[in-house]
From TrEMBL:
An annotated GO BP: proteolysis
Known cofactor(s): Zn(2+)
InterPro entries assigned: Peptidase_M18 (IPR001948), Peptidase_M18_dom2 (IPR023358)
Entry EC number(s): 3.4.11.-
UniProt keyword annotation of Amino-acid biosynthesis present: no
UniProt name for this protein: M18 family aminopeptidase
Family: Belongs to the peptidase M18 family.
Enzyme class: hydrolase
Pfam family, one: Peptidase_M18
Ranges in a coiled coil: none
Keywords: Aminopeptidase, Hydrolase, Metal-binding, Metalloprotease, Protease, Zinc
Species of the source: Thermosulfurimonas marina
Statement: the UniProt record of this protein carries the keyword Cytoplasm: no
């Protein structure tokens, strides 16, 4: 009798209860091999593309290799301001019936050089910086840093700068204060105040040019001379430059079992890579598809390369013209209203050492699959997109049919914090949209950690979404 009751309870639990399981336990051997191939390709991409411009350049090369063109066609892409890219695959249905849209972002927290960055003090040369996005300032001291970006001269000449990555390259760094002298200056302050933004100055040199000892700024002049010899730039050229200080070195495998990938910029280049990988394999989908790789998300999606710009409207307008549709006054809006979209963005994975900020029943687990986040925002759901139940149910069906392993999760306890994505800006057009991406450990740090299984399921989820019919 007891045995029978136990069996009945087990059957009922299997039928009714929701019990998430690790992705690895549910994968066939061929899928595990595919996972490792995807992870290695992603690791290489992450090591190569450390700025939004470098992301666009790398993705454009992959698209061209796969047969995409920059001229309107069934498979084409377009680049805007060198920092935003949109790629499209024509479906069996014209865009007017709605588009399958994935929007990700390719900017990441970093240190940007100021307009007049170079100065000398105590016979050492430094670059002044202004941090970009939400960072913990103490993450950026006492570590090897590299300089990436572009300098544009008045005649239009563009000089690409990558320093600190090649074998034999010197690296840069922000120096920290030794603990022996830091008790009052840092130790008695709040963690957020211990390192002021104005002290995130990057050490770049210490050898003076030959000259009289009383002559000033010989070290600064020596650095300017080196920069001119290597890149042909002068001090005034910093005014028309976009130079970003990022962590030096490649992305790497983490863990004795190599389960994780660690590296800079995974928020949100992991979603961008997964979306691109899914798009490259797409052949004649039911609905026309569009994948957006956006800039400026980490500072509020402002500017003409962010999600708040009207770039999307222009893309839809051109997409309709490609199909022979002459857009009328409301044609673009009608198309966007019929669109189904995914905001490809990461969320916080639960760290067992900081469970006090997590809600275990509703937060994301590492290695349990792509995360469907119905709403973002912070306390009271402010500044959030909140996806409709009908749309979430449709996605559940799509994932079930495609064998996608997902988890539904939010980010942290209700009053603990929160965050936003581009979803709320695209929802303003009336389209259905929800956040979908992998969890990360150490998000917004210079060394974020992702589980390979979550990357793989994110790619599978995006592919299922782009391929989906009604």
């Amino acid at each position: 009798m007891a045995r029978r009751k136990k069996d009945e309870l087990k059957t009922l639990k299997e039928k009714l209860a929701y019990r998430p399981r690790p992705v690895w336990d549910q994968l066939a051997e061929k899928d595990k091999k595919a996972l490792e191939r995807l992870a290695e390709d992603y690791r290489k991409f992450l090591s190569l593309a450390k700025t939004e411009r470098e992301c666009v350049e790398a993705m454009a090369a992959l698209l061209k290799k796969a047969g995409f063109t920059e001229k309107p066609s069934a498979r084409y892409f377009t680049v805007f301001r060198e920092k935003t890219l949109a790629a499209m695959v024509a479906g069996k249905k014209p865009p007017y019936y709605g588009v399958r849209l994935i929007a990700t972002h390719i900017d990441s927290p970093r240190l940007d050089l100021k307009l007049h960055p170079l100065y000398e003090d105590l016979e050492m040369a430094f670059f002044k910086t202004h941090y970009y996005g939400g960072i913990k300032k103490y993450h950026w001291v006492a570590r090897p840093l590299a300089l990436h970006g572009v300098v544009v001269k008045p005649d239009g000449t563009r000089v690409k700068v990558v320093l600190g990555e090649a074998p034999g390259d010197p690296v840069l760094t922000v120096c920290d204060l030794l603990p022996h002298l830091a008790r009052k200056v840092q130790g008695e302050k709040k963690l957020s105040e211990a390192i002021p933004g104005e002290k995130l100055n990057v050490l770049v040199g210490g050898l003076p040019l030959p000259g009289e000892a009383e002559e000033k700024e010989r070290v600064k002049l020596a650095i300017l001379k080196l920069l001119h010899e290597k890149y042909g730039i002068t001090e005034e050229d910093f005014v028309s430059a976009e130079l970003e200080v990022v962590p030096a070195g490649p992305a790497v495998e983490v863990g004795l079992d190599r389960a994780f990938i660690g590296g800079y910029g995974q928020d949100d280049r992991i979603c961008a890579f997964a979306a691109l990988a899914a798009l490259l394999e797409l052949q004649e989908p039911e609905y026309s598809t569009l994948v957006l790789f956006l800039d400026k998300e980490e500072i509020g999606s402002d500017g003409n390369t962010g999600a708040k710009s009207r770039f999307l409207e222009k893309l839809i307008y051109d997409y309709l013209k490609l199909w022979g549709v002459t857009p009328q006054g409301d044609t673009v809006l009608e198309t966007l209203l019929r669109t189904r979209a995914v905001s490809g963005d990461v969320t916080a994975g639960m760290d067992p050492h900081y469970l006090e900020v997590h809600e275990k029943l509703n937060d994301a687990r590492m290695g349990y699959g792509v995360v469907l986040t119905k709403y973002t925002g912070h306390g009271g759901k402010y500044m959030a997109n909140d996806a409709h139940a009908e749309y979430v149910a449709w996605l559940r069906r799509i994932f079930s049919e495609a064998g996608v392993i997902y988890q539904a999760a939010s980010m942290g306890k209700v009053d603990e914090g929160g965050g936003g994505t581009v979803a709320k800006y695209l929802a303003a057009y009336g389209m259905d949209i929800v956040d979908l991406g992998p969890p990360l450990l150490g998000m917004h740090s210079p060394f974020e950690v992702a589980h390979k299984a979550d990357l793989y399921m994110t790619y599978r989820a995006y592919k299922a979404f782009l391929s989906a019919g009604d």
